[in-house]
Design brief:
The chain has 9 helices and 13 strands. The protein has about 475 residues and is α+β, with helices and mostly antiparallel strands.
Length: about 475
Amino acid sequence: MSWSLRNQLFVPLAAIVITFVYYSASLRSDHYVEELNHVEDAQPRLFAEQMDSLVEPKLLPTFRQLEKENPGWQFAAFRGEELLASTVSLSEKELEVVRHIPPITADERGRGWTMRAGNGKPVWYCLTVTSVPAWPSDTRLVTFYSYEHALMLNRQAATRNFVVASVVAFVLIIAVTWYTGQLSRRICRIKQQVTRIAKGDFGQVVEVHGHDEVDDLARSVNSMATQLQQLHDAIRVSERTRLQGQLAGGVAHELRNGIHSARLSLEVFQEACRSFTLPSENMLDTAKEQLLVTETLVRRLLSIGKTQERERLQRPLAEVLQDVATMVEPICRHLEIDFALTHDHRLVHTVQDSEMLQAAIVNLCLNGVEAIGRHGELRVDTQYRDGQIEICVSDNGPGPDAALSDQLFEPFVTSKPDGIGLGLAQVRQAAETEDGTITWTRNGSWTNFVLSFPTLSIPKPTEVAVASL
């Protein structure tokens, strides 16, 4: 049989409370009885001191008045062996016993004698014989204190104390019940949170308001949930990236074979047509150059699916941007799109992975071209701001779907019917390779994608920015 934590706390606390309260009540009852006995022992002397001068006709009414004012007490007066007055019915034998009881002295306690008296139903009395200062020396006062009345007072005191103790114990048990319930509920909330975490729900947290051990445990559980959520997100991104690499590797392998065959065919065609006059002398050279650039980008895409470390090619940023313009400008001219690339040549920056960054910028440009369609504007602007180089690719197309704005750079997220959602994920990877970031905004009719990464190159104020196409 297993006990809940609440019962493990409640039962011992309740037992301790009940034991302590009733033990305190018992001590209090014993103390009260002791005080009551002390008062009862001293009472005969007080009666004797309250007596006036002896007047026999008034003696019995005086005893009746004292009996009325002091329940449980009876009185008798003797002169020598003569009974002067009595509120107790005494037989001759009982009178003989009382006559021979000596009076108590100042150093003695009262109630030193007991006897049964009464004609009808005999009652046990505690007898005390005292001398009355106001009376003659041969007279004495006899007080009878009912033993049953003394027991009744003791029982009443004990009952009263134990009733109070029961009320106090009940209130304390209610308090213990509430406290253990609160503690149990707090621990149950933590248990439920751990159960949700075990099922994969890391979103909810346990409310924490205090600074005790249970709250520290709740904080630890919340921290664990946060870390597990971060780990879960990292695993999800890693898995999607792995799938991205596998898919990109397969696509790139097929593209590389096609591009390689096309480039070889152009070279063979160029050799065969050297004796002919072409409309443009460098037409085939331009086509070969475009295929070489495309083959480089596909080779970069193919390397994503490989596990070994790829060798990075470092190049000046200006050369990377010029290659971007060489590739994008003919496409824009064919679609009647105004293309402009502006680069501040005062920025002398070396890119750590030129192939990846070039592929990222080309990807953004081609996305802009696809969004524009025909007869639009595409801009690539580079500037230095607060220690950062910012490459902004802007187009006046309709922009991305607003529903995908928060997940735009995640792998396999796309609004294109025939897209696979890898382009912008590779753009983010390129930005992270340069220790930078990628953001996007929609300002009016323009969509702006901004690549930002740190640089140590600071433009000289005496030189002028140059625009190139």
